[in-house]
Amino acid sequence: MSTSINKVILVGNLGTDVKSYRFSDGNIVVNFPVATSESYMNKETGEKVDVTDWHNITARNKLAELCEKFLKKGSKVYIEGKLKTRKFDDNGITKHITEVIADNILFLSNLLGKQPENEDIIQHDF
């Protein structure tokens, strides 16, 4: 029996407002990019180098509704989820995208001026 783990933890800021998709069956999906940054010293120049990585985040249903309500560009978030790579067709060209499917999101800052209720701050297994 083989055991594996697919777990991602990120703390970063939204790069855009949340994009929402509502379906006729009542399901909701949101997508948004999150930036994470780190720094290191260049050994040759002695200068500090900042590196930013962008991560595509997807949340569904109740968690998606909370993201719509409380998040916007610049919001700081803590995200737990799993990596998922999917392929899609773009005008006859097969493309791949890797996303973080969010299981839990902690809203660390709130730019909308609305404060989430305590039970809304962390959502599990949506």
Notable characteristics:
single chain; 126 residues; mainly beta; OB fold (Dihydrolipoamide Acetyltransferase, E2P); 6 strands; 11% helix; globular
Structure, explained:
- A five-stranded mixed β-barrel has the order 1-3-4-6-5.
- The mean pLDDT is 90.
- The protein has a single domain (8-38, 52-121), classed as OB fold (Dihydrolipoamide Acetyltransferase, E2P).
- The chain has helices at residues 61-70, 118-121; strands at residues 8-14, 19-22, 28-41, 48-60, 76-90, 93-107.
- The protein is mainly beta and 126 residues long.
Topology at a glance:
Layout: E1 8-14, E2 19-22, E3 28-41, E4 48-60, H1 61-70, E5 76-90, E6 93-107, H2 118-121
Parallel strand pairs: 4-6
Antiparallel strand pairs: 1-3, 1-5, 2-3, 3-4, 5-6
Number of strand segments: 6
By CATH, the superfamily comes out as: Nucleic acid-binding proteins
Please give the alpha-carbon distance between the first and last residues: 28 Å
Strand order of the largest sheet: 1-3-4-6-5
Q: Assign the CATH class.
A: Mainly Beta
Backbone structural class: mainly beta
Report the CATH topology name: OB fold (Dihydrolipoamide Acetyltransferase, E2P)
Short description:
With 126 residues, the protein is mostly beta strands. Helix content is 11%, strand content 54%.
